# Entry
Amino acid sequence: MTAAPRDTLPVLFLSHGSPMQAVQDDAVSQAWAAEARTLPRPRAVLMVSAHWESGVPLLTGSPQPETIHDFGGFPPELYRLRYPAPGAPDIAQRAQALLREADFCAGIDGTRGLDHGAWVPLLHMYPQADIPVLQLSVQPSLGAAHHVALGRAIAPLASEGVLIVASGHMTHNLRQYFHRDRSAVQQNRDFRDWVDAHIAAHDLDALTAWEAQAPYARGAHPTTEHFMPLFVALGAAGAHYDSQLLVQGYTGDVLAMDAYRFAQAA
# Structure
C-alpha cells in the first residue's frame, strides 16, 4: 500500500560501497533490504547520490531513467545489471518548487539516468524496481551548510510519501583502500567515531564545520562529494531527529560503511 500523506517517512543515509555491492549478499546489503521491509511502501524514492555533481541542484525528470554504469574495470556481470524503475517527473517538479521556495536555483534534467550510487542500494532495497525513482545532485564546492539547507528544503517530501535516501560514504579515501594503507586505519576510525558522536549529540554546528574540527577530516575525505549526502539527510531529518545506526563496519579497513536512519521529530 502507498504511504498516505500523513505518514512521515524516515530519511536514510547509506554508505554505498563499491559497485560490487550490487552482487554481494552481506551484512550491508542485508541491512538495506531489512530497513526497506520495515517501511511503508513509498510513493517514490528520492536518491541523493555522491556520483552526480553539478553547479546548482538538479533533479532527474526522465519518466524512464536508464541505468548508468559509471565505473570501469569491474566484472562483466555488473555491466549487464539494469534497474528499470520508472522515473518520477511529478515529484521532480514538486521538489524543484520546494527548492525554489527556499531560494535555490534548481533545475530538472530530463535525460539523466540513475548512477550506481542510486541503483546499487535500490537493487537490494526494492529489487522489483516497481517504485518510481528520481535523483538530486550534490554541489561539493558549496560545502556542508549548503547541503543541510538542501535537505531542509526538500524535507516536506517525507510527509508526502517520498523516501529520501542520501547515498555517499562515511569515509572515502580510495588511495588508501587500493594501497591497503594500514597506517590510516585508526585515523579513519577516529574520524568515523567523531562524526557518530556528533550525530548522536545533534551537534550540527560542529558537523558542518567538520573540515576544521573533525580529526583526520581531509584524510578521510580527500574530496568531499561522498560526505555531502549525509548533510542533506541531516537537513531533511530536522533539528530534533531520532537517529539509529543501521550498519557499522569497514571495507578494506579504511572505507567506513555506516548507514543511518533519521526519524523526523513530530
Observations:
- The chain is about 35% helix and 20% strand.
- The beta strands are 11-15, 44-53, 58-60, 107-109, 133-138, 162-168, 242-247, 250-251, 255-256, 259-263.
- Confidence is low (pLDDT under 50) at residues 1-6.
- The longest strand covers residues 44-53.
